Amino acid sequence: xxxxxxxxxxxxxxxxxxxxxxxxxxxxxxxxxxxxxxxxxxxxxxxxxxxxxxxxxxxxxxxxxxxxxxxxxxxxxxxxxxxxxxxxxxxxxxxxxx
Length: 98
Prior knowledge:
The chain is 23% helix and 31% strand. By secondary structure, it is an alpha+beta fold. It has one domain: TusA-like domain (Translation Initiation Factor IF3, 2-Layer Sandwich). The protein has a 5-stranded mixed sheet, with helices on one face. The longest helix is centred in the C-terminal third of the chain and has 12 residues. The radius of gyration is 13 Å and the shape is globular. The N terminus is likely disordered.
């Protein structure tokens, strides 16, 4: 996966727009609970309704955290996978309420 644009290098974290897609990538590998969800929440606030955020995390507790976060906030957890200890979550920001 090629990653470009929108880099946020503060504290070693990266937030980038994926090329050719409307997805934004947030890399929070190495952070532990509750930081992956908090960083994702902050990133989603800056995205328009319906936008997708892909989060890469290494904390095993993030699986439970992201499921609970999606249920409580109304954002959709549209995909989840794990490969070699890296968890990949795809969240879709909820539509704005009137």
